[in-house]
Design the sequence.
DNA sequence: ACTCCGATGGCACTTGGTGTCAACATGCCT
DNA sequence: AGGCATGTTGACACCAAGTGCCATCGGAGT
């Protein structure tokens, strides 16, 4: 049981590491799955038992962020202004992407992954797909939080879309500046722009 | 010259029509490109001379909407509030998707295409990709319109993202209600939510 | 009539992705 | 210890998406 699980995770890590290495080095299209598999010491068939596609190796890291953000949003105090609650929820993802290991070499690898995603159409498309799922989750949580009807209220999906637009803009700026700009400051800037609409549901001042 | 062009367009239309028909009927994954090609009376190889991928047949219709929206945005009077200018720019796309032929059988085909896109992951991903391009174009135009620096100002990409969130939300509601809800009213609703942030750049009242 | 050019079709080929099966390890039960 | 169940793996065959290449055909201009 524990033995099998550990082995599975080991192989998955090996595979992901080999893939990230090769993809970052040679570009997405120039690497075949066979290459990745042999680099990790397994067969092509085994690769597909761990990842559903080539894009998945890169993007799967970000999969869990949706539920995580939703949980964080749900954990914010009920009276908190939406702009603040959403900022905190999104911050978790930004930190996960940018801040990993705070001030070490690890964030550099994260930077390169983000740049790879943003610069590869196929990866970008998958990334956008994930974001669309995140948006639905965030929207559902917002509707619940504000007692709105998810089927008719326009606010929840729009607010979630705004929050993810901020996420996206911050990520782009951060990766475009090679990590030089501060993600937290960027995110605050973005939510300052969004806040007037985000907080207008209940009233302009809270 | 004219002869060759007409023939090209004829073949492209034939291909697109056959593809849309088959895809809507059997589902995206259940249709091979060979099928589409023979249904249009050409070879698989010729299909790829007209469309870059299976997804492209469906999505290519929407390709031009980016420049169109940008042009419309550029054509709005300089002093118009961003929320209004963007609403009008986005409206063009919504109308193109939903309203085609105003009140005829044509909008029903458009509805089915939208439902196909929104319900097929592969198509959704491509659609989102296009939207990302639109956003960049809209952002560039907004920056120019407002005299903002595209490299540092957060407002343009965020505003463009908001506008496209509205587009997306409207499209989803419209397709989810099988075309029953009025796209124009939905869009107005959406921009009413967004307006406080959209119009806050220059001042809360204009 | 000759020639040039674009469109086409056929074909081989690479790659992503899946189904199937036999081999092998692990662990549990008696 | 022997036997059985479960789970992982690799090999192989297979399908479908794309792409490169070349021979061919038909139309336009000379």
Sequence:
């Amino acid at each position: 049981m524990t033995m099998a699980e550990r082995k599975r995770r080991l192989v998955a890590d090996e595979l992901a590491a080999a893939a990230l290495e090769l993809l970052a080095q040679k570009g997405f299209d120039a690497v075949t799955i066979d290459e990745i598999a042999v680099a990790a010491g397994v067969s092509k068939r085994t690769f597909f038992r761990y990842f559903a596609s080539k894009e998945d190796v890169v993007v799967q890291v970000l999969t869990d962020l949706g539920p995580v953000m939703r949980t964080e949003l749900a954990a914010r105090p009920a009276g908190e202004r939406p702009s603040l609650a959403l900022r905190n929820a999104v911050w978790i993802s930004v930190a996960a992407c940018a801040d990993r290991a705070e001030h070490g070499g690890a964030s550099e690898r994260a930077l390169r992954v983000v740049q790879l995603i943003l610069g590869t159409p196929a990866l970008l498309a998958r990334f956008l797909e994930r974001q669309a799922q995140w948006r639905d989750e965030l929207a559902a949580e917002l509707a619940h939080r504000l007692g709105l009807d998810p089927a008719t209220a326009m606010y929840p999906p729009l607010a979630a879309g705004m929050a993810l637009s901020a996420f996206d803009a911050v990520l782009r700026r951060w990766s475009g500046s090679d990590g030089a700009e501060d993600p937290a400051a960027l995110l605050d800037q973005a939510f300052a722009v969004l806040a007037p609409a985000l907080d207008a549901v209940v009233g302009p001042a809270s």
